[in-house]
Amino acid sequence: MLSFDLTALESHAVIVDGCLDARDGVWGDTEPKPSGDIRVTGRLSSAGASRFYFSGRMEGSVSTDCRRCLTPVTASVAEDVHLLFVRAGDREMDDPDVYVIEGRARELDLRPAIREEWLLAVPALVVCRDDCKGLCPHCGADLNAGPCGCESVRDERWDALRKARTTS
């Protein structure tokens, strides 16, 4: 569960231990969705009048493609998360690092904030392995499986540098 009663939060902190489902409606169609649930743990407490602070951790994994050879890859995502929530009308609600709670809301829903933190934490470029050779730029063959067999196309723009390297 990632929604908490605001009235109860004003009087005492709560321990957060829940999951954000990969099929939850909070995810957009084109976003890098998790390959399973995102586990969210931490502490949510009052931080003054109409302010709440979450300190915790999120952990999950994302399925994506290797940036070199396009092989499907699963990458782990684990981040410490620190979030500040304020009610609408608070003077700090214009701060981009602060999450706004609508004025009449009775619950604080962590899901949209966890989604945003997840999107920031997901690695943009993942490789299947450190020594991935990628794809041949000419024929598209996977070079991890072996040489492609197409003739190496030489870029003449580098000839002067090659010549300088062999003469020194």
Q: What would you note in describing this structure?
A:
This protein is α+β, with helices and mostly antiparallel strands and 168 residues long. The protein has two domains: 3-132, no CATH class; 133-168, no CATH class. It has three helices and seven strands. It has helices spanning 6-11, 111-121, 159-167, and strands at 3-5, 14-20, 38-46, 51-65, 72-87, 98-101, 107-109. Strands 2-3-4-5-6 form a five-stranded mixed beta sheet. The protein is elongated.
The profile of the biggest β sheet is: 5 strands, mixed
DSSP summary, beta strand count: 7
Broad structural category: alpha+beta
Kindly report the oligomeric state of this protein.
Answer: single chain
Return Rg in Å.
24 Å
* Number of discrete domains: 2
Q: Residue ranges: pLDDT <50 for 5 or more in a row?
A: none
The H/E string reads: EHEEEEEEHH
Specify the helix fraction band.
Answer: 10-25%
Query: What sort of overall outline do the alpha carbons produce when their principal axes are compared?
Result: elongated
Biggest β-sheet: strands ordered side by side in the sheet: 2-3-4-5-6
Question: How many separate helices?
Answer: 3
Which whole number gives the mean pLDDT?
A: 89
Distance between the termini: 67 Å
The fraction of residues in strands falls at: 25-35%
Tell me the layout of helices and strands.
Elements: E1 3-5, H1 6-11, E2 14-20, E3 38-46, E4 51-65, E5 72-87, E6 98-101, E7 107-109, H2 111-121, H3 159-167
Parallel strand pairs: 5-6
Antiparallel strand pairs: 1-7, 2-3, 3-4, 4-5
